[in-house]
Amino acid sequence: MSLVNVERPVSPAAQQRPALLARAGAAVRAYVALTKPRIVELLLITAVPTLFLAYKGMPSLKVTAIVVIGGALAAGSANALNCYIDRDIDQLMKRTRSRPLVSHTVSPRSALIFGLVIGVISVALFAATTNLLAAGLTLGAILYYVLVYTLLLKRHTSQSTLWGGICGSAPVLIAWAAATGSLSWAAAGLFGVVFFWQPPHFWALAIKYRDDYRKAGVPMLPAVAPVRQVLAHSVVYSWLMVAVSLAVSPFAGPVYGGAALVLGGVFLYEVHRLYRQSRRIEGDELVTMRLFHLSITYLTLLFVAVAVGAFIR
After folding, report:
1. CB 179 within 8 A of CB 51
2. In terms of C-beta density within 10 A (0-12 exposed, 13-18 middle, 19 or more buried), how is residue 151 classed?
3. Could you tell me the residue range of the domain that residue 236 belongs to?
4. Angle ∠(204,100,140) on CA atoms, nearest 5
5. Is position 12 within any domain?
6. What's the total number of domains in the chain?
7. Is residue 25 assigned to a domain?
8. pLDDT per residue over 264-310, tens digit each?
9. Per the domain annotation, does 7 fall within a domain?
């Protein structure tokens, strides 16, 4: 006696399922890309350690979750709306040609709705679960990034990176407000560290892509000024950053103070090294990405020291 295996016919719905899943996955990845997750990650690196200092130890898990989720949604909203507004110049720059609106994986209308919706959710989340100060700061940061930085500063002034840093530094204040319902000199100091950190951080990247900015007509400082002048500005803001970071030491303790001193010394050495090199090396051959990556390490380790110092104390 033989057994015959009879294969069941595959339904049309089952045949289409892999393609549908693939399209859904591509759509999710496109919307995530709109939020610029690497920037969101950097913002949370400053926000979460700030909670440790605000609580003088281990922060509330509930407030931490709200700051992470609400902060990610707020930053994602601002970035998505930035992509919507800048889609005309993004297609002109090599660095941004793969963004979802340029590659037509997300429509402008969908990106606009997505950005607005997650922005409203983030503000509502802070208002409902923490306090109105945190919610107001969140709303202010989104509006500043979209209306002031993207629409006004970015296309009209070479100092857009400096003044755009206000919204990039806001997560520190939002986290402190969410934890305490108020602001303080310690929060202001950490805000100042991030504010002065952003010009040397981003200009190091913009020097590499300055031809992109020129092509798009964006007057970023590295696109309109000699590299040596840009690095001179970076030296000034780096010293201000380190000075403010040391001024935070009385609030954050000796562990943080020691880390701020060492990390600041390394950062200043690197930015001065680049500035000295710019005297004898042509701008097109000067490699600044080492400073860019070092700046990320600096900010990460400095805010880890904020959390560790607060936890130990």
Report:
1. yes
2. middle
3. 32-312
4. 65
5. no
6. 1
7. no
8. 999 999 999 999 988 776 655 578 899 999 999 999 999 999 999 99
9. no
Query: What are 68-92's pLDDT values in tens digits?
Result: 999 999 999 999 999 999 999 999 8
Contact 94, 212 (CB under 8 A): yes
Contact of 299 with 45, CB cutoff 8 Å: yes
Kind plus residue range of the DSSP H or E element containing 190 = helix 185-208
Give dist(CA 43, CA 264) in Å, integer.
20
How far CA 74 is from CA of 21, 115, 215, in Å, comes to: 28, 9, 30
pTM summary value? 0.91
Using DSSP's 3-state secondary structure scheme, residue 220 falls into: coil
Q: Find tokens 């289409």 and name the residue.
A: 16
Q: CA dist 122 to 135, 142, 221, Å?
A: 8, 10, 32
What are the DSSP calls for 114-141, one per residue? HHHHHHHHHHHHHHHHT-HHHHHHHHHH
d(Cα 170, Cα 202) in Å, to the nearest integer?
Answer: 17
